[in-house]
Amino acid sequence: MKAWLCENPVGVEALQWKDLPSPQPGPGQLKVAIKAASLNFPDLLIIQNKYQMKPPLPFVPGTEFAGVVEAVGDGVTGFKPGDAVAAFTGTGGFGTEALVPAALALPLPKGFPFEDAAAFICTYATSHHALIDRGALKAGETVLILGAAGGVGTAAIQIAKAAGARVIAAASSDEKCARCREIGADATINYVSGSLRDEIKALTDGKGPDIVYDPVGGDLAEAAFRSIAWRGRHLVVGFAQGTIPALPLNLALLKGASLVGVFWGEFAKREPQHNAAMMMTLAQWYAAGKIRPVIDQVLPMAQLPQAFARMSTRQVVGKLVVVNG
């Protein structure tokens, strides 16, 4: 097999496309021939040694991928060679083969494209867990989505609309805002060219959004939280801007508002039955056409550095996918 190996986590430039021994599945594992993998923001952080999970060196990065089962280990039930699966494993996806714990493999229904499947689990699970579980989103409420043109943002637009919400998508360019409207956003805000607070006030008649979906952090967080509605919920999803904000807690008091942490990976570990039920719901929504991953570009696996370079420009709308064969 071939894979991108990280032997020194100093960034993309240290990754090497190497020949490695083909792995053999142990008890409870699947050997998967990878057809497609997607890039997530943690993939960049982990090869820069900036992520909370620091795998032992060397390792193959790539959190999320889809492919075909080649072999199954002892004790595995429910899977056989030839089955199409997707997985979110934290590492291992940027190569031609990977070992996957059977418990983490999602069976794919017939006709589910590998490119879509590779870009499905992380963003949709995060956004569904955030909006529906942690945010208790109700039909008719207004959701403000920051970083709305990114992977989790585009997923959040679709999930919020499927739940009957009004969606205000905030992004960093007019082009991204236009794409968000195409995906289903009811209104958009370019927070680079305009005032986020003024635009929110105008679009909500001064009431503010019931939910703020925030994967960005930085200086946008306080502006959004100051604009939130009474009893609003500010969902802390991530810090793509790079800075963890320090919010004045008196704002929560004055608005009767909640700061709500969202950590889908830990939720999946601690509450596997609830996570499995959620993934089933998302698969049904996909089959019904309610949600579909927004794919920015599909590149060959061997061009992973170029994909990371595009991610770093902040021009990506949706997800970048790399494919084998």
Question: Can you give a write-up of this model?
Answer:
It is a single chain. The protein is α/β, with parallel strands linked by helices. The protein has two domains: 150 residues, Alpha-Beta Complex (Quinone Oxidoreductase, Chain A, domain 1), CATH 3.90.180; 127 residues, Rossmann fold (3-Layer(aba) Sandwich), CATH 3.40.50.720. The protein contains eleven helices and 15 strands. Strands 3, 4, 5, 6, 7, 14 and 15 form a seven-stranded mixed beta sheet that branches. The protein has a six-stranded parallel beta sheet with strand order 10-9-8-11-12-13, sandwiched between helices. β12, α8 and β13 form a beta-alpha-beta unit. The longest helix has 16 residues. The chain is globular. It starts with a strand and ends with a strand.
Question: In a nutshell, what does this entry contain?
Answer:
With 325 residues, this protein is an alpha/beta fold.
The tally of structural domains comes to: 2
Helix and strand sequence: EEEHEEEEHHEHEHEHEHEHEHHEHE
The unreliable regions are none
Radius of gyration: 20 Å
Strand segment count: 15
Helix count equals: 11
Q: Give the C-level CATH assignment of the largest domain.
A: Alpha Beta
CATH topological fold name of the largest domain = Quinone Oxidoreductase, Chain A, domain 1
Distance N to C terminus: 13 Å
Mean pLDDT: 95
What is the CATH architecture assignment of the largest domain?
Answer: Alpha-Beta Complex
3D shape: globular
Biggest beta sheet summary? 7 strands, mixed
Q: What is the fourth-level CATH superfamily of the largest domain?
A: Medium-chain alcohol dehydrogenases, catalytic domain
Structural class: alpha/beta
Q: Please estimate the helix content.
A: 25-40%
Proportion of residues in extended strands = 15-25%
